[in-house]
Amino acid sequence: MSKWTGMVLMTAMGTTLLAGCSSTPEKTTGAAGVTGTPDNKVVTIRLWHNDKSEFMKRKMDEFNATIGKEQGINLEFRAMGNDYADALKVALAADQGPELYKFVGTVKDPFINAGWMLPLEDFAKAPEFLKDYKDMIIPEYNTYKGKTYSVPFVVITTKMLYNKRLFEKAGIKEVPQTWDEVVSAAKKITAAGEGKEYGFGTHLKDVGAMGGKWSNAVMFAPSVGHMGYDFQKGQYRFIDFKPILEKVVQMKQDKSIFPGAEGMAIDNLRAQFAEGRIGMMMGASWEVTNLTDALKPKDDWGVAHVPVLDTAKRYKEYAQIGDYLVFGAAAKKNPEKSFIVYEYVHSKKFQRDMHEEGVDFMANAKAIEGAKTPDKKGWKEFSDLSTSYFTKTPPDGAIKLEGDTYQNTIGKILSGSVTDIGKELEGLDKRYNDALTRAIKDGFDLGPFKDGAWDTTLKR
């Protein structure tokens, strides 16, 4: 696509998008068809999201039929698909964005600096609202320069998935707890599979994308206590991954890994697991929905902890907090009404319903305390936060890296194309830490990214 064609398409998309987003403050239409007047008007609050689920649509309709009707709010909900992030940016840049929206990504700075996102502190009811989150807020993810822009809502947790039939067929009675046991089990499953079934599965086609990050990078935290950036030392330490990467490469040399990983994305790997051809794979909590709603695995499968190098020194498994809504600049026009919608979505009832209906995993354990566990295989294991830690945000967004990213480097190692893994990881550490040093010299504050008390050791 030419640059000019791209500009035309973006302009066209923006024009189409903005056409349906204007509202007339003097006269609006409420959810129940009530026509507002200057004395008793119904205010339209727009909420944009990438969640197209029936649950979300139903909840927005419920708001309009109850709280919205009582408070004079017409909640205009708009759910979009793959083009959501681009469409949102077009609208925000044109000052036609919604009052509330789902932010996609982890680095909010550009949106905040552009004036596209408002801090909660700008709203009168925020101090009371934030009391429920005082021990959960993650600096530099939920906050920026001392202001709070979002709160923890959902959580992505990590585990290992395994095929029970293949374990039984290979005579394996216990689920591996260490990487040495994984290597041994993978070899047995592959031998019993006679070229049709393999012990371990990974995917490298999308190593730099979200799926690659979660399926490959989650292998490390329970063994080394971090995901590449050591918050205790305030430096990158990819070299700590070396012994685990060596175990995976050993499985590749043993021919225990499902073939063709270089050309496989997470969807392909998941499909092969569902077909009963892979004994073990790393997975994030969204696999529960994928393997119960979208796919129907041929064999019974289970969920186990991510294996470690040494069971005597186990760290917590990696989990990442996700927020759900942020305030757009448009919320300045009707701050009280906008905050009512925000409170509704973040209410304990909303979160509890989302949990009980198996829509997503909630970050706030208090909100779902005593709630019914969804009848979905794996939900109980993935929703147990006692063995997980909520990661802080590493300073990746502040550095200007020279050379390959850690995702691509790890991908090269897993493909078996690196002869000296230690040397490759040492070079990776140097690139990242040099970039971090340059950022600090340019004024970057390392303070929020260094914590001497940081410890993810799993205490039993």
TrEMBL record:
Domain of life: Bacteria
Keyword Kinase: no
Subcellular location per the Swiss-Prot or TrEMBL entry: Cell envelope
InterPro entries in UniProt: Bact_solute-bd_prot1, SBP
KW Transport (keyword) present: yes
PROSITE patterns per record: PROKAR_LIPOPROTEIN
Signal peptide (from-to): 1-19
Keywords, ordered alphabetically: Signal, Transport
Coiled-coil residue spans: none
Pfam families membership: SBP_bac_1 (PF01547)
Entry similarity comment: Belongs to the bacterial solute-binding protein 1 family.
Name by which UniProt lists this protein: Extracellular solute-binding protein
Organism annotation: Paenibacillus baimaensis
